[in-house]
Write a structure and sequence with these properties.
The complex is a heterodimer of chains A (155) and B (306). Chain A is α+β, with helices and mostly antiparallel strands. Chain A is 41% helix and 26% strand. Chain A starts with 11 loop residues before the first helix and ends with a strand. Helices cover 62% and strands 21% of the residues of chain B. Classes of the chains: A alpha+beta (155), B alpha+beta (306). Chain A: InterPro entries: Membrane_assoc_protease (IPR052165), NA-bd_OB-fold (IPR012340), NfeD-like_C (IPR002810).
């Protein structure tokens, strides 16, 4: 039974095994949480492998490494997500409509009217525009589109 | 040993804290973050860190377009037909904060709004319009519901009325009306056909009559012409005879007539019916005829004497 970790003797191998188990847990229950702990465990295993430390110190280091791993990881993941912009195309709400030219279906008066986008109508805000005019969507705020007149186009 | 226990608890604390602070939001959702219960910000999909103990996740809002089934409900139209209507609503949350905190139960609110508006719109229309103007119904519903849900950060993209079911007896009458309509058309076409046929027949008969009359007229003309011809020929013959008489002697004619007379008598005498013998009654006429003969003889012999 001397291969089991105890409160007065933890070997690098124990940390590595813990890391592996945590990684498997991450796969079983994805939540990007256990992966940081696994990272910390692997790193601690390396440290302990190089210079053997007392058990309390190891545990303390593990706690510190976990926090460090999360913040470093957050940074790293942030860069990862910047690399893959595909996710930004989805669920962007009304933002996806910016740049489209649409027709006013209810005249914009006092900064409020309606425009037809696809087969649906959206609230629009912008300069006063008569019905039937073509406008350009320049922005979106919640369910209201900000439109700009395209000069000289009357339908 | 005590220090060790403290350390172990510390590690546990760190783990729990991290568990509370690291939040990864799946794509298609936005989670709202509340600091001391007050809305702070919306967490976008991906890895997010929140401050444990003072921040917590409020609502997990689905940002995908969603479909709501509007259950069947009974609506009374303007012309008092009781119909059963159901439908679907497509909506999408565009503002997770508003959808979380401006309205208590978004789905139920949207659903009730749609149902009441279906009643409003359909109650103001006649049944026939209802069945044939679904597009305009959908458009009106969309305009109203979309406007109403706007404060909740929701965009209603589409409302469709699925099924409009009039009561069974009404459907039966509709069927009858349809059938009657068709039958009327068929009858009219039949009558039209008979009329056309009769007209054509009459036309044919008229034509035939006309042709007949034409034929008769032509024939009469030709007959008259023939009679005229005959008369002319007879007149000619008479003229020739009279000319011959004028040129010759009248007694020649008398001789001819007498000869015929005698021939006729002979014929009568030699007829197979022996019992009858027709003789001129008047002696004078016999005498006359004899005298004629005598005169003929006189002419003939006297001419030689004289």
């Amino acid at each position: 039974m001397d291969w089991l970790p105890s409160l007065d003797r933890i070997l690098p191998g124990h940390w590595w095994v813990l890391g592996a188990v945590l990684l498997m847990l991450e796969l079983a229950a994805p939540g990007i949480f256990f992966v940081w702990l696994a990272l910390a465990a692997f790193t601690l295993g390396l440290i302990v492998f190089v210079l053997p430390l007392a058990v309390p110190l190891q545990l303390f280091l593990f706690a510190v490494l976990c926090i460090v791993a999360v913040f470093v990881g957050k940074r790293y993941v942030g860069r990862l997500m910047l690399g893959g912009q595909d996710g930004e195309r989805l669920n962007t709400g009304a933002g996806r409509l910016v740049g489209r030219t649409v027709v006013v279906t209810a005249a914009i008066r006092n900064g409020s009217g309606r425009v037809r986008v696809g087969d649906s109508e959206w609230r629009a805000t912008g300069p006063d525009t008569p019905e039937g005019a073509q406008v350009l969507i320049v922005g979106a705020e919640g369910t209201t589109l900000t439109v700009r007149e395209i000069s000289g186009t009357w339908v | 040993m005590g220090a060790l226990i403290v350390i172990v608890f510390l590690v546990l604390l760190v783990l729990v804290t991290l568990l509370a602070g690291v939040k990864s939001v799946p794509q298609g959702y936005e989670w709202t973050q509340e600091r001391f219960g007050k809305y702070q910000r919306s967490l976008r999909p991906g890895l997010n860190l929140i401050i444990p103990y003072i921040d917590r996740i409020g609502r997990r809002v689905n940002m995908m377009e969603q479909v709501l089934d509007v259950p069947s409900q009974e609506v009374i139209t303007r012309d008092n037909a009781l119909i059963t209507v159901d439908g679907v609503v497509f909506y999408q949350v565009l503002d997770s904060a508003k959808a979380s905190y401006e309205v208590r139960n978004l789905e139920q609110a949207t659903l009730n709004l749609t149902m009441t508006n279906i009643r409003t719109v359909m109650g103001s229309m006649d049944l026939d319009d209802l069945l044939s103007n679904r597009d305009s119904i959908n458009a009106r519903l969309l305009a109203v519901v979309d406007e109403a849900t706007e404060p909740w950060g929701v965009k209603v993209t589409r409302i469709e009325v699925k099924d409009i079911k009039p009561p069974a007896d009404l459907v039966a009458s509709m069927g009858r009306q349809m059938k009657a309509e068709r039958e009327k058309r068929a009858n009219i076409l039949d009558a039209e056909g008979f009329r056309q046929a009769a007209i054509l027949k009459a036309e044919g008969e008229k034509q035939a009559e006309i042709l007949n009359a034409e034929g008769r007229r032509q024939a009469a003309f030709l007959e008259a012409e023939a009679r005229e011809r005959e008369a002319a020929a007879e007149a000619e013959a008479t003229r020739l005879v009279s000319e011959a008489i004028a040129g010759g002697n009248a007694q020649a004619i008398n001789y001819f007539i007498a000869q015929r007379y005698v021939d006729a008598l002979r014929d009568v005498a030699t007829a197979p019916n022996q019992k009858t013998l027709i003789l001129p009654i008047e002696a004078t006429s016999i005498l006359g005829s004899l005298q004629g003969i005598a005169e003929v003889a006189k002419e003939a012999f006297g001419g030689r004497k004289g």
